[in-house]
Design a protein that fits this description.
Largest interface: A-B, 24 and 22 residues
Order of helices and strands of chain B: HEEEEEEHEEEEEEEEEE
Order of helices and strands of chain A: HHHEEH
Mean pLDDT of chain B: 89
CATH topology of the largest domain in chain B: Immunoglobulin-like
Strand content of chain A: 5-15%
Helix content of chain A: over 70%
Largest sheet of chain B: 4 strands, antiparallel
CATH class of the largest domain in chain B: Mainly Beta
Shape of chain B: rod-shaped
Number of strands of chain A: 2
Radius of gyration of chain B: 30 Å
Strand content of chain B: over 45%
Number of domains of chain B: 2
Low-confidence stretches of chain B: none
Oligomer: heterodimer
Structural class of chain B: mainly beta
Distance between the termini of chain A: 44 Å
Shape of chain A: elongated
Structural class of chain A: mainly alpha
Largest sheet of chain A: 2 strands, antiparallel
Chain lengths: ~150, ~260
């Protein structure tokens, strides 16, 4: 079993690639058509990725303790608040220049954000139950083992 | 407790799979959605309206239906005043289908003869057409495409002018005033009806008037000299023109007489 710190680093790199590097790769393809759109969301994405990676790495370093579940719950709450704040910005707008004519395109992506919030609520419930389950197991381990009555 | 945790875990995985599947298929389908626009055509309607037709087609090659497709246009003059607005609705475009429709924009000349828009009867200009295409993709994602383009406009009374008025003898108390009137019909409609010319003196009194028939085809000029009988001692200050055509009624157009 690799040490916890190695697993934490691997998870951190994986989440960085999934949440930042991959979206920025696709954004670089779109940026020539909608530079304002990409610039507007790059900072948000950087903030989101930084905080999520912090929680993921911290949870992995605290594995085997109650703090792991605490960090997972904190991550779920942060993601939930982030999506709720972003919900009103889920209206994506960009301006394209087609043959000298300026054309505006907008899409309402709130349905996707609502879906993400629903998934995050499930994750929050799961992390909370895991924390309760961990605490109950610890308490059961600390209770004295009943001796058979002769 | 462990079963509940496991069930929540599975639910999360299933939701993620559904969401990612929908995102991937929606993005793929969006690239298979192809709108197309034809050339503008113009039609004269007998009630004095000009109908501009814009044929368009939608090819939905994606995996989801498109619903509530609405094309709305707003025509404004060079000063931003509203001339006409129109909406075309296509309730549903099933996946894999092509739909063709024609969006019509009607410009009423009788409406143009109102005070705020009357300059459009005399000035050639480029009208501004704002369009907005709204649709709902997979009944879940609303899209909106908007923009604007110019619509060339030819005025029916372009360059309306009165030339130098000349006096010709008539009798001892009256003289004949020869008034040249000219304009160019740059519009797409025929001007059929009458034109009334009134000559007005310094005190605002009508000295004389003449009604003449009008029949000016599109892209044709009108030029005529109207002769009116006015008192010898009168001073002609203004000419008032009244147009009564099948397309619009407008007047008076007040032109100072030199």
């Amino acid at each position: 079993m690799p040490p916890r710190i190695v697993k934490a680093i691997i998870k951190g790199v994986f989440y960085f690639a999934l949440l930042y590097a991959l979206p920025m790769f696709f954004a670089s393809r779109v940026s020539e058509f909608a530079p304002d759109l990409v610039a507007r969301y790059t900072q948000l994405l950087a903030l989101f990725t930084t905080v999520v990676i912090f929680f993921v790495v911290a949870a992995e370093l605290a594995s085997g303790t109650i703090f792991r579940h605490g960090f997972n719950i904190g991550k779920a709450i942060f993601v939930l608040i982030f999506f709720v704040i972003t919900l009103d910005r889920a209206l994506i707008e960009m301006t394209l220049d087609l043959e000298g004519t300026s054309v505006g395109v907008s899409a309402d992506l709130r349905i996707f954000l609502i879906f993400l919030i629903a998934i995050d609520l499930l994750a929050l419930a799961k992390n909370t139950l895991q924390a309760v389950d961990f605490m109950s197991e610890r308490i059961e381990q600390q209770l004295p083992t009943p001796e058979p009555v002769e | 407790m462990k079963q509940a945790i496991r069930a929540l875990g599975w639910a999360i995985y299933i939701f993620w799979i559904i969401l990612l599947f929908f995102i991937v298929t929606a993005v793929y389908s969006a690239f298979q959605f192809t709108p197309g626009f034809g050339d503008l055509s113009y039609t004269n309607v007998s009630n004095g309206s000009l109908v501009v037709s814009l044929p368009f087609s939608i090819k939905n090659g994606g995996l989801y239906d498109v619903s509530d497709l609405q094309l709305a246009t707003l025509i404004k003059d060079g000063q931003g005043l509203r001339i006409s607005n129109s909406t075309t609705l296509v309730p549903r475009i099933p996946r894999g289908n092509n739909v063709s429709a024609t969006h019509t924009m009607s410009i009423s000349f009788s409406q143009l003869a109102s005070d705020t828009l009357s300059h459009v009867l005399f000035d050639d200009e480029a009208l501004d057409v704002e369009f907005a295409l709204r649709l709902s993709y997979a009944s879940a994602v609303p899209f909106r495409i908007s923009g604007n383009f110019s619509l060339p406009w030819g005025a029916p009374l372009s360059g309306l002018a009165i030339g130098d008025v000349s006096s010709l003898p008539y009798n001892a108390t009256h003289r004949r005033a020869a008034v040249p009137v000219s304009f160019d019909n740059h519009s797409l409609i025929s001007l059929e009806g009458t034109m009334q010319l009134e000559l007005v003196d310094d005190g605002g009194h009508t000295l004389s008037y003449e009604i003449t028939a009008l029949d000016v085809l599109p892209d044709r000029s009108y030029s005529s000299i109207l002769e009116l009988i006015v008192p010898v001692s009168s001073t002609i200050r203004e000419a008032h023109l009244f147009f009564n055509t099948s397309a619009f009624n407008y007047g008076p157009v007040v032109i100072p007489v030199v």
